[in-house]
Write a structure and sequence with these properties.
The protein is α+β, with helices and mostly antiparallel strands. The protein contains 7 helices and 11 strands. The chain has 2 domains: about 30-105, no CATH class; about 130-244, Ribosomal Protein L22, Chain A. A 5-stranded antiparallel beta sheet has the order 7-11-10-9-8. A 4-stranded antiparallel beta sheet has the order 1-2-6-5, with helices on both faces. Strands 3-4 form a two-stranded antiparallel sheet. Strand 10 and strand 11 form a beta hairpin. Helix 6 crosses helix 7 (about 160-185).
Amino acid sequence: MEQPIKDAPRETSIENFIKLKPPSIPEGFNGSFTECGFDPSKYSDSLFSQLDIPIPVQIAGSVTKRKAEFLAGRYCAKAALSELGYFHTPVAIGHNRCPAWPAGISGSISHSENRAVCVVSRNFQGVGIDITHKIPGKIISEINTSILNKNEEDICKSYADPTQDGVTLIFSMKEALFKALYPQVKKYFDFLDVEVVAIDPKKQKIQLRLIRDLSEKLGAGTEFIGSYWKTGECFYSLLEYGPR
């Protein structure tokens, strides 16, 4: 359900607010990937209509930062879907606020600070993307034990900056895994319900394993391989689950 947008006092041109960026995704992904840079300070409500993207009632009353993030993510989704032949296909807010993709499509959206990304594919039951800027050390000290187990803390020690780089990477990859699996299990699970078994910096791959059962098909011991890369202070994580 959508509601009319009340224009903000000022209007902003699309070019000042958002621009698509060259894709940074590793070779071999069987789907569509889009990335954009956006400036939340240049946001105005009129941009939704300018970009022909409906604003859901759940978002219309949000603060400016949230509306800017949502619009940037849906802009990436619109561009990614068009590459698969889905034109003028709005991505509504679905179950538990997850994106509602067209039938036969799996997808994922993420944003961090002034970047947004989206992946969509016909070839997987689930696909997850996450983008996370390096987590400040002060925040890591507060959340570390809710993200990492003892084995993962040891894995992080192999990094030149084990606290920030290692924890940020594992956090990001677990976020990507959640997004890939949630459409299948339709329930929340914790960071500590999955563990990173190994990280291969040369190939930029991460091996993960479920610690508890999530469903009949996704039981404890199920393993996954995700890809990651880094641009500046920003980590990207991508994980595909289950060929269709």
